[in-house]
User: What shape does this take?
Amino acid sequence: MSLRVEPHYFDLGPEGRRSLVDRVLADRLERARRLAVELSAAWGSWGPTMTPDAGRVAFVSDRSGSPQLWVQDVVLDGPLPEAVPLRFTDDPVVSVSWSADSAWLACAVATGGGVRTQVWVVRPDGTDARLVAGSSTQHAELGPWTRSGHRVIVTLPAEAAGEPTRAFLADPATGSLEALAEGDLIHVLDLSAYERMLVLRDGPRGHEFCVVVDRERDEEHPLMPHPARGATDRAIIRPAPAGSGHPGMAYFVTEVGLPRRQLVSLAIDPDDWSRAPEVLAVREDAELEALDADDAGRRLLLVWNVAGRSELELYDTVERVFTPITGLPGAVATSPVLSRDGESVVLAVEGPQRPRELWHLEVATLGWTRVTDVPELPGTGLVEPSLERYEGLDGLEITGWLYRATGSGAATGGRRAAMLHLHGGPESQERPVFSAQHQAMAAAGISVLAPNVRGSSGFGREFGHADDVHGRQGAFDDVTASARHLVEIGVAEEGRLAVAGRSYGGYLTLCGLAFTPEVFAAGVDVCGMSDLLAFYEETEPWIAEAAVTKYGDPVADRALLEAISPLNAADRIRSPLLVVHGELDTNVPVGEARRIVARLEQLGREVEYLELPGEGHEYRRAESRRTLVDAMLRFLAPRLLGSAEAGSRRHSR
Assistant: This one.
């Protein structure tokens, strides 16, 4: 007969037992902090663009600590070639696009690390770098290259309310700009081969629409009926399939008249615009999130979002046949590129245990080959999250990814702690991607549930619009339901549950603490809004104009916005709060953080503030991400895993 004894409880009195558990927790926290350092430094590669022959790839990578431009050969048989950095700026590179003639690379660069971007061009050997548009005060957006590759599209959003957004054709050799289009919130999505037809997207969030502009006749034609409920936000134009009887075809992603985003086409004929759109691909279980095509328009690449995971297909527009692509080497695929001849695909792939890396698909064989090098990762096992399904307070199904704390209950003294983490947007989506933050929390003994509350993308048109304006309470209730789910399934106990989030998720965090103060023991607000009226006054003009359909009009809906601004209910916040913000954030301006911190300090509440220098709305530098995760660990671990008596005192304060 054997006797099993938990070593930390053997022959110890209450104080000795508590002291030993606290030492174990301290050791565990230190290990989690070291893991956070390692994972924050685990660089990735993303945003690929290829030469026409698919022999070279340019991409963005933060392997140097900050996102920069890299170029390397694509080698499918043999050792990986060395990637070469093209360093023409100290600011983070956001995206890159290779010209059709292979002569230039165009890059979007985060000005000073902030929200506004500049457009640069540079030769593939790193010479002739030139600033084309943008400055510290003027935001410039990078658009597509023309089919000839001689010019690239640059868009300049309005600098003040009431001004138009303007798009230009930029000459990379001279920097000259030729006016192309003008509108409210326009983005140029594509140009036809001879630049006669232009595809434009316009409209506020959730209500985007696309039109084809005939530049020769100065006419515009909508791809789908407008106005309508839902959005059309991705579109390309290509030659029509042989034998179709018309010269061009637009392929686009839309939810107008459909329950989810699907693939639709429309014949393009300058002399006959009478044809109706045709739905080409429908899935009841997925939304189409990415689309690309070869130059001939014969082959399309589709990326479907299936409850957060990616699935790929190829579509032959002549034979009208779909070919599933199996063996995706990761959970989530982003920024897919189909080569001009349709024979190669390069995309970024990641998962909970692997940061973003580039992979190549050979279309003829459907064989995968890794293109870029990958960093060394810690030898300890990382958590693979499970997909949770549960009901909101009104019965609506909610999903979330659950990262269960590692180790036995004895390692945390039997204390069951958890953190809700709320994504931004709200049109974004929580997916099973690489997260140093979630992994470090789990390693510290704090489980993480990352839910997709109503308003998230990936779950259909009605779910995405369920939180619009007067539906905001539904999103608040989904946060409460997510907390309840963690308690009901035994992952967390009351008094040991925190809420955290970034951007809109930071706003929901503050709302959870203010409007349901009895639910959460602590909170972490990362670049969230605290006063929606001040947000409208201080954010970038084009961001404010686009946000009205999602949050409400600052004039017509003023009373609503005041009522749901957590700053106005700060006196109800009782739990400790950590606030984090980037000093250069002009999306959610830094005043949103400073105001809530000042108010809570005036009220005598427990609040800490971390302002990250040189960062905007996205924290692109590895050092900043490490600082953030470490601050969250140090703030939450003692408050969620400390003694029950301390937790009770904090909760009832």
Notes: The chain has a mean pLDDT of 93. The longest helix spans residues 14-40. The CA atoms of residues 476 and 512 lie 7 Å apart. The longest strand covers residues 354-362.
